Amino acid sequence: MLDQAWTATDEITFVRGSATETGLGVGTSDLVTSGQAFHWFEPGATLGEIRRILSPLGWAAAFWNISAGSPLTTELEELPDRLAANYTPLSERVEACLRSIGAGTRTRLFQRVKVPNQQTLGKEELLLRLHSSISLPRSTASEELRREVFAMFDRHSFGEQCALKYKTVAAIWQVDVSE
Fold first, then answer.
1. Which of 43, 54, 107, 156 is deepest in the core (most CB within 10 A)?
2. Is the pLDDT of residue 140 over 70?
3. What average pLDDT does the chain have?
4. In sequence order, what are the beta bridge partners of 164?
């Protein structure tokens, strides 16, 4: 994906990095965001890197889609318990992240926002969504899983589409970047 970005434009600089070692300079970022991923990062080291790269008035934000309790979304979120060993539900991982962000010794102006979000998908898109938003290992992409997801789709679809109902949870904060 990064190779495609490099060839798509010369107006933006792309760098290879990680949540804990971005490769960006000190105080060079006015905004740092993470969409549906912060729960995979080591919170202390990630928050330290965010503090290092943020400009003095910069902001950070992390976003997640959490089930709003619709029957289809609930069924989908129960699948990992059966299919992946030692799976911690996304909602629990997000709460742990929010606690880490809010409890940061240099976090200030912390806000937590929840907004309703509905996504409409076709059958194949639903299978892909299962792997991206619920983060199942690719090894579970068996024919059995495919049949199970498609059966869920058939139970909850309207025509060729189904609706996933979420609460988008956003954490928005600033950090004290002074030493």
1. 54
2. no
3. 85
4. 119
3-state secondary structure the chain: CHHHHHHHCCCCCCCCCCCCCCCCCCCCEEEEEEECCHHHCCHHHHHHHHHHHEEEEEEEEEEEEEECCCHHHHHHHHHHHHHCCCCCCHHHHHHHHHHHHHHCCCEEEEEEEEEEEEEEECHHHHHHHHHHHCCCCHHHCCHHHHHHHHHHHHHHCECCEEEEEEEEEEEEEEECCCC
Are 119 and 170 a contacting pair, CB within 8 Å? no
The rounded distance, in Å, linking the Cα atoms of 35 and 155 is 29
Pairing of β 54-67 and β 162-175: antiparallel
Architecture per CATH, domain 28-175, reads as 3-Layer(aba) Sandwich (3.40)
pLDDT at position 81, please?
66
